[in-house]
Amino acid sequence: MVLNQPYVPHRRGLFFMLFWVNYYFVYMTVFSILFAGPLGTGVGFSIVSSLWFQMFFQITILLLPLAIWLAIFREKINEHLPHMRLGKTNLLYIVGLSIFIQPLFMVVAFAVNLVFPNETGEFVMQQANYPLWVMILVIAVTPAICEEVVFRGYIQSSFRNKTFWTMALMNGLFFGIMHFNAHQFFHTFLAGIFWAYMVYATRSIRAGVISHFIMNASQVSFIWFAIRLPIWLENLLDMTDEYELGIDYILDAVYDIDPVDPELLAAMIPVFIMFGLIATGSTIVAILLLRGFDAHNKKRVAEYEAKIAAESAEREDAEIEIKEAEITPEPEITPESSLKEKRKNLAIDVTIILAIVAVYVFIVFGIPLL
Is the pLDDT at 236 greater than 60, yes or no? Predict the structure, then answer.
């Protein structure tokens, strides 16, 4: 069975992703039937449109299928979560990188917004009536745990025998697909690569969880405070009732804006230029931080691995004779057979990836046309 071949351990991650996109399709189909029926009106509608339901949704759409998959193959999640200690220096690097890399992702998101609507941004703004701590719990804490465990945990661990860039690009691709949103795909693709690197460099899933939380929480906090700022200014300036503002009024005004209106785009050009300059400067700072982060972790990982190797050397020496006695000589592999096997494996991998992408395209672009 190709899923369990020892020389292609990454294939279990590919098959899991194929399993997951189909799980997502079935899940959303059932959900749509329920939403159009008993959940489509009254109390049911208020439940599924609440932030608390979104937290339930994230857990059941990510952690539940992973738990099912692990149970089928009798694996433990701890085997796929790198858990090396971070240390205070890494925490400072992670905070700094998470802050200074954000403007780059935002520029990408703004550019894509000219082609695809930002439905996620609208959803976050619609939840602005909730307390800030609830929004952070649902939009920052829950995704940081669920998404990192699945993508920088299980999927990334399945690619550990591949090169870093193969692992990172597959992680970014699958992470972008996971959102099933054309607008989110591009900047989440970059974010997936970024967090894959952080977990790879530190050998700790905590690096991805912390960075993911910081980025989501800062964006949610910005939106929450930005919506309330006009109200606070109104109260501060003691405006008359004629100019009284409220959150609903502000949200309606935002929704009335056409993001692709030519006059609006022309008026926003100076803002885009200024933000582009800010993003350029912050990206340069992020690159400098990445260099220090990379050097720091190469040193600490080398020391950690040397320590582990020294501690296990005696035990390994004692087991060598037993293992050598049990090993069955493998058949000789000629260059021709090796090349043929590589082509076969590549064809299988590409087929699985294309199947994953096909399901993604069908859900994002095909279903709305039906």
Answer: yes
